[in-house]
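--- STAGE predict ---
source: upstream dedup step, 1 unique chain passed
mode: sequence only
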Amino acid sequence: MLAAAGRRRINQGSNVTDDCLACGPGFLDWLAGDAVLRGAWQALARRRLARGTLLLASGASMDRAWFVERGLLRSCFIDAGGRERNRGFHAEGHWAGAPPAQVAQPAPFAIEAVEDSVVAELPHALLLQWQARHPAVQAVLIDALATSMATLARREATLLMDSAEQRYRAFVAAEPVLAGRLPLHQIASYLGITNVALSRIRRRLKAAPAGERAM
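--- STAGE serialize ---
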């Protein structure tokens, strides 16, 4: 039953983001269909993180992933001078971290709690065991990897081709709830602009006629 469910998700349409079974709250509904996997999931360690807590340090061994059960995380790159640039946000029902590699790699980014959060911790070694024992897990993981690649390609295109205002409009349109939960400086970092530039964009949009704001 689980394998069939995974195939249905993978074969639906061309929008992999909407169809990704592992990339949203529907993952838990899928997991509940198998008593063994459900029990294994419930046995995972949970971590409670206060706002500002570092879940993963840049350069640390990346040998696990985290599923956000409550709260909000951000992943960010940090350069040698300590400057940060957000790469993504991870709210309830979504994953943070990276898929397993043959050898654990140093994390190229850090993960921090933006809000008080609770995450389920899935070691890569355990995920590989699940893949070997449950063919449906392999299908779902492939689905998630395809979605991740498509998301990264769209983000790259946006950063290279769109103006700062276009990037902000697109972010708010796609993530209205998330935009309301995040401090503005975190959004600016994600969009690749300064806080001052974002403030100017927001003022300009507020001053524009309603029809123009909706464009």
